[in-house]
Write a structure and sequence with these properties.
The protein has 8 helices and 9 strands. By secondary structure, it is of the alpha/beta class. The two termini are 36 Å apart.
Amino acid sequence: MQRDPNTLLGYRLDKFQNINKQLSGLQQGLYIVAADPNIGKTAFLLNILLDALQSNPAASVVFYSMDDTRKTIINRLLAMLTQININTVQFKQKDQKDAADLSKAYEFLRQSIASMRLDIKDAMDVWSMNAIELDLRQHPNLKNLVVAIDGLFNVDVAEEKDSIRETNIERAIGLKMLTQEFMLPVLATAEIRKAVAGAKKTERTIHDIMESGKFGYNADVVWIMETIDPEAAKDQSVIEVKLKFEKNKLSDYKKNTKLSFYKAKSTFREI
C-alpha cells in the first residue's frame, strides 16, 4: 500500500532500459545467463553489475569470479568505463584524454571498493557455496546488494557427490537459498551442453543448460545468449547478440532483446 506505482520493484538499470522496463528493475531472484563459450557471458554480467552500481547510489555489488582473476575483472571494468581496449588500459596512455579518462575510472573503482560498494573476489578468495554464503553474511550493505557469480560450475559444494549431475543439483539449490535467505538479486553464468556432432543446428533452449531441470526450476529468469550470425562473429569486433528471455517469472515478457557486443571494450549495449 505504500509503494509508489511510478517506481521500480528492483534496482534501476539506466543503460539497459528495455531489460529495466520489462523486469521493473533488477528484482530479488535468481537470474541464469546461459550461452556457448566465448559469447560474452562474463562481459554481460559485468555490464549489468556496473549499471546497477552506477544507477543506484545506495546499492553495492559483489562479483565472484570463479574463472578469471581479480586483475582481469578490473581491466574489463576499466575498459567499460573508458571505452579503451582491454589490453590498452594496462599501459601508459599517449592520448591526454584517454589518460584522464583512465585516471578517472581508476579513482571511481578505488572509491567504490574502499566504500564497499564494489567487491570483486576470485577463486583464491572464495571457492565454495559455503564460502560465498559466509562472505555475504559479513557484508555491511547486505540489504542493498546485487550479487553475481561467474563460472558457476567451478563452485565447490559442501559434500563430495557421486556424479557431476548431483553436484550441479547441489549448486542450483545453493543459489536458490542465497536469493531466498538474503532476499537479493543473484546472477550466475551457466554452461550449455555441446551440440551433438553432425546434428542439425537448432535454437538453444533452457533444456540445453547442464542439469536444466534443477537450474530451470529454481531460476526466476533464464537468459539464453546467442550470436545472430555465428560465422560473421568470428572476425568482427562488434557482434550482434540475441538475449532470449527463455524463462521469466518476474513479468510476462518472453521476447528477445538484441544487444551489440563490443568485444575489445567488453561492452554490451541494447540495440
